[in-house]
Amino acid sequence: MPSRxxxxxxxxxxxxxxxxxxxxxxxxxxxxxxELVSSEPYEFSSRGESHYLALHDIALRDxxxxxxxxxxxxxxxxxxxxxxxxxGCGIEGWAHPDVRPNNFIAMYFDPEAVREDLGHRYARHRxxxxxxxRNAQLHGTLRKLQTLVRAxxxxxxxxxxxxxxxxxxxxGVLADPQGQLSDRQVSQVAEYVEAHLHExxxxxxxxxxxxxxxxxxxxxxKATTGENPHAYVQARRIRRATEMLRTGDxxxxxxALAVGFKGAxxxxxxxxxxxxxxxxxxxxxxx
Length: 287
Hints:
The protein has 287 residues and is of the alpha+beta class.
């Protein structure tokens, strides 16, 4: 079920489309990239129906932020700052943006979405809100999420992994020691991936095969194979594509869909990144 409850924004005037939103939803998580088209003042609020995490690239002429449990903040330079507001915690305020490109990436999720991944430590970690903080690790993760959300085609497995990582970084929880997968678990995952390359494959699907939480599965899979699940699936998709390019006459568009990409542009980009040439050049060089 989508967990997104977008930040309410009300502008002072009726300027057509003062913001542009790019929303995405995944299993237990959602995110949106918000670009402020107008530099007019606006009010914002959230009822706290889910955890809210945002990375800002905003400069203000003036503004005010009020979060339950925190003193009122009147920061103006919000560039590269992070705000986290847990479920049940209200947020409201107003802002008068400076005349510049202003935007933010926001992620929404319910704490139940990561209960299993946090394991027995969940009950001992009740996160407190924070605003306009700077953290290099979380900043990097949210930047990756922003790039994914803005892309025309999004790899759901990759997006889900990044959202999960961001949520765990918020809780500041170190995963319990996790060993490697058994040969049987690796075989089950490999067989599933090969049989479903033409479909969307989620991290939850793979973790369920191994009987682990998503986070523990990711750690154990990389410890066993040397690759994270997303990289492994991408490699299998490209390997299947090279076979089809060498032995058949299907178009690039048809092959892209047959190996699970959402379209030819995404397929061409990933193929070039991994093989070093375009699909058509690869086909011509091997015939």
